[in-house]
Design goal:
219 residues; 7-stranded antiparallel β-sheet; 3-stranded antiparallel β-sheet
Length: 219
Amino acid sequence: MSILFVLLTFLLIITITYFRRRSEVVATQTVQAKPQAPQLTRELGFEIPKGFAFHPGHAWVLDEGRQNARVGLDAFASNLLGKIDRIEVTGINRWVRQGQKLATVTSGDTSIDLLSPIEGVVTSLNYDAIENPDMITKDPYQTGWICAVKSPDMATNVKNLIQGALVAPWMQNSVTRVAGMMQQGSPALAQDGGVPIKGLLSKLEPGVRRKLIQEFFLA
């Protein structure tokens, strides 16, 4: 009887452990709730979301507390692309380093690697945006987020990013650089003087397009 009791106890422990781990995995794969609308301020012709930090490769990150962050593509990059046909994001539970490829964005015959703004493990994907990539370009800072990352060293990572009062001048400098790379007389800016005209990348010759991708997506 004592041996049978030990075996039953052992089986019970294994069963409990299995279902506990299973529930943890399911929890990490659950898409996070819809984020609240960001507070936007208009500076130098750009709408800047409060509390967001930006990678030089034009991905953003929003610290949501407890080492959790949401990641997406900024308005400057989404305007350059104009339309996203497909986005492929690294899998859930994959560890990504800051500056490492997080996703591949495809627009027409052009594919661009989006670099991760922070280091950590991917905990969920925005399947709505993956299935309908127009969300990323229409609402990049709210419903168009791409994935969530758990980043144990987020405080250090964010120090390497562009944030606060530096964001608007950085965006403005990016637009100035775009204009400088265009031929004289070519349209580079939107009519409101902010981000590039929508879909500019697709209107360029392949050589110029590649230079812009290298310059602004660091790919």
